[in-house]
């Protein structure tokens, strides 16, 4: 790809913007190309590459690791652990536009693991892709008791915020949740949905949400792009 030498925007700024766009779209993950590779790909000087990289480092999008290269450090979405929030609310708090696309839904027989955890012999299943500023960031699989799920499916489950529908339309009051976060890889199909390589490392989260009476409202499992999403918590040390 060549930069526009006739454009009033300096070449290093054009390069910086192009690299940033490729990071946000998932084209670059982990370690970015070397200075030499950028020079050859864009037919530009080393000084132009270094200025662009320096700008991205100052903005916290890239970080240099001595002897190893330059790596992506951008995680624009941070989910504060300790509060029960929807993905939509989290994305909005980061100043980004949330979005969703329905992949499938309907009555299913959950896995043995979900059946043992939630005592769902059957469940209403909703699978969606989640977006932030039109970039796919997560695959969400949500399981509900049949009565809740069937009623939820009468609303806009394609683009709507499911937590808002459950709380405001169905008047279900959430109380607490238990959540586990691990890492893993996606299936080929889900990797294609997120526009990432098959072996791309993702953050896997499992959550069981309860209402005020202690009944299970939802079993939630999701895979988040690790270059776009992070979980954050605040710790304190109790005095003896």
Helix and strand topology:
Elements: H1 11-25, H2 35-42, H3 46-58, E1 62-65, E2 69-72, E3 77-80, H4 87-93, E4 98-108, H5 112-118, E5 123-132, E6 135-144, H6 146-152, H7 162-169, E7 174-185, H8 188-194, E8 201-211, E9 216-225, E10 229-232
Helix pairs in contact: 1-3
Structural notes for this entry:
The N and C termini lie far apart (61 Å). The chain has 2 domains: 62 residues, Arc Repressor Mutant, subunit A; 156 residues, 3-Layer(aba) Sandwich (Chorismate lyase). Helices cover 30% and strands 33% of the residues. The longest helix is centred in the N-terminal third of the chain and has 15 residues. By secondary structure, the chain is an alpha+beta fold. It has a 6-stranded antiparallel sheet with strand order 4-5-6-9-8-7. Strands 1-2 form a two-stranded antiparallel ribbon. The protein has a two-stranded parallel sheet with strand order 3-10. α1 packs across α3.
In short:
The chain has 2 domains: 11-72, Arc Repressor Mutant, subunit A; 77-232, Chorismate lyase-like (Chorismate lyase, 3-Layer(aba) Sandwich), CATH 3.40.1410. It is 30% helix and 33% strand. The protein has helices at residues 11-25, 35-42, 46-58, 87-93, 112-118, 146-152, 162-169, 188-194; strands at 62-65, 69-72, 77-80, 98-108, 123-132, 135-144, 174-185, 201-211, 216-225, 229-232.
């Amino acid at each position: 790809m060549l930069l526009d030498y006739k454009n009033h925007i300096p070449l290093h700024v054009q390069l910086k913007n192009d690299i940033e766009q490729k990071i946000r779209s998932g084209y670059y993950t982990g370690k970015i190309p070397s200075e030499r590779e950028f020079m050859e790909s864009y037919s530009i000087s080393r000084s132009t590459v270094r200025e662009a990289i320096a700008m991205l480092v100052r903005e916290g999008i890239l970080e240099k690791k001595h002897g190893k290269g330059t790596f992506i450090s951008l995680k624009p979405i941070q989910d504060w652990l300790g509060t029960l929030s929807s993905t939509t609310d989290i994305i909005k708090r980061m100043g980004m536009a949330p979005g969703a696309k329905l992949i499938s839904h309907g009555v299913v027989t959950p896995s043995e693991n979900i059946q043992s955890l939630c005592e769902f012999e059957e469940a209403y299943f909703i699978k969606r892709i989640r977006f932030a500023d039109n970039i796919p960031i997560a695959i969400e699989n949500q399981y509900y008791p049949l009565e809740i799920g069937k009623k939820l499916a009468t609303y806009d489950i394609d683009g709507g915020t499911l937590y808002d529908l459950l709380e405001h339309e169905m008047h279900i009051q959430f109380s607490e949740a238990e959540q586990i976060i691990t890492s893993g890889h996606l299936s080929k199909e889900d990797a294609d949905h997120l526009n990432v390589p098959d072996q791309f490392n993702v953050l896997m989260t499992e959550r069981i949400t309860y209402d005020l009476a202690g009944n299970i409202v939802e079993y939630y499992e999701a895979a988040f792009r690790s270059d776009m999403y992070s979980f954050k918590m605040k710790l304190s040390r109790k005095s003896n």
